[in-house]
């Protein structure tokens, strides 16, 4: 009896470990949220982000890094085009209140650098752009991961992003004073800043007014 219990415990422990590290096979099915990877005739259903989905080609061979999550009611596989995306996924799901689906949505909404930049700069609003992530969860992500995401970020791009966000926020606030709602001007502001990253607040306000 003791031997049987020990064996069952050993099997349980083994199953809790990420047994599938990667998959290499043909993309049998492909959607923005999942793919079926055919490996020697066996199809593996793999949850993916939009970032990874855009790198896959239907009926072509691919290689994915895999994170396996074992639950009482399911054995789930999540696939990533790069090791860095997998590492970010695991960091995100380590935060209380962030599940695998929420992590994939965030990875589908922002690039790795944007996520890292938002965490390092404390930009809760940017993280909340991911559907299902509210203010409290965004703040928890920032607090828990701010010392763990430095390697995902580009320092020069972070500075540029921070400056551009500040300029955009000031311009949108000025426009709100003029009675123009943020939802009407934000997309226009993003387009203008993308075309001219060094634009001033005053010029941005003028350009937005011209394009409304």
Automatic annotation (TrEMBL):
Residues 169-211 form the Holliday junction DNA helicase RuvA C-terminal domain. It comes from Chryseobacterium defluvii. NCBIfam families: ruvA (TIGR00084). GO terms for cellular component: cytoplasm; Holliday junction helicase complex; Holliday junction resolvase complex. It is found in: Cytoplasm. Keywords: ATP-binding, Cytoplasm, DNA damage, DNA recombination, DNA repair, DNA-binding, Helicase, Hydrolase, Membrane, Nucleotide-binding, Transmembrane, Transmembrane helix. The RuvA-RuvB-RuvC complex processes Holliday junction (HJ) DNA during genetic recombination and DNA repair, while the RuvA-RuvB complex plays an important role in the rescue of blocked DNA replication forks via replication fork reversal (RFR). RuvA specifically binds to HJ cruciform DNA, conferring on it an open structure. The RuvB hexamer acts as an ATP-dependent pump, pulling dsDNA into and through the RuvAB complex. HJ branch migration allows RuvC to scan DNA until it finds its consensus sequence, where it cleaves and resolves the cruciform DNA. Homotetramer. Forms an RuvA(8)-RuvB(12)-Holliday junction (HJ) complex. HJ DNA is sandwiched between 2 RuvA tetramers; dsDNA enters through RuvA and exits via RuvB. An RuvB hexamer assembles on each DNA strand where it exits the tetramer. Each RuvB hexamer is contacted by two RuvA subunits (via domain III) on 2 adjacent RuvB subunits; this complex drives branch migration. In the full resolvosome a probable DNA-RuvA(4)-RuvB(12)-RuvC(2) complex forms which resolves the HJ. InterPro entries: DNA_helicase_Holl-junc_RuvA_I, NA-bd_OB-fold, RuvA, RuvA_2-like, RuvA_C, RuvA_C_sf. This is Holliday junction branch migration complex subunit RuvA.
């Amino acid at each position: 009896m003791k031997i049987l219990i020990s064996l069952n415990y050993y099997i349980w422990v083994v199953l809790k470990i990420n047994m599938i590290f990667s998959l290499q096979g043909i993309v049998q099915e492909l959607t923005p949220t999942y793919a079926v990877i055919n490996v020697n005739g066996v199809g593996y259903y793999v949850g993916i982000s939009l970032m990874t989905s855009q790198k896959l080609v239907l009926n072509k061979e691919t290689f994915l890094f895999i994170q396996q999550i074992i639950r009482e009611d399911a054995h789930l596989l999540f696939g990533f085009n790069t090791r860095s995306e997998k590492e970010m996924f695991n960091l995100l799901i380590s935060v209380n209140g962030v599940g695998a689906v929420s992590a994939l949505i965030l990875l589908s909404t922002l690039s790795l650098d944007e996520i890292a930049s938002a965490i390092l700069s404390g930009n809760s609003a940017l993280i909340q752009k991911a559907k299902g992530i509210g203010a409290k969860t965004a703040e928890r992500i920032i607090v828990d991961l701010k010392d763990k995401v430095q390697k995902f970020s580009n320092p020069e791009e972070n500075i540029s992003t921070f400056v551009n966000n500040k300029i955009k926020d000031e311009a949108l606030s000025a426009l709100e004073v003029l009675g123009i709602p943020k939802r009407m001007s934000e997309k226009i502001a993003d387009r203008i800043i993308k075309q001219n990253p060094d634009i001033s607040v005053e010029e941005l306000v003028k350009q937005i007014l011209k394009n409304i």
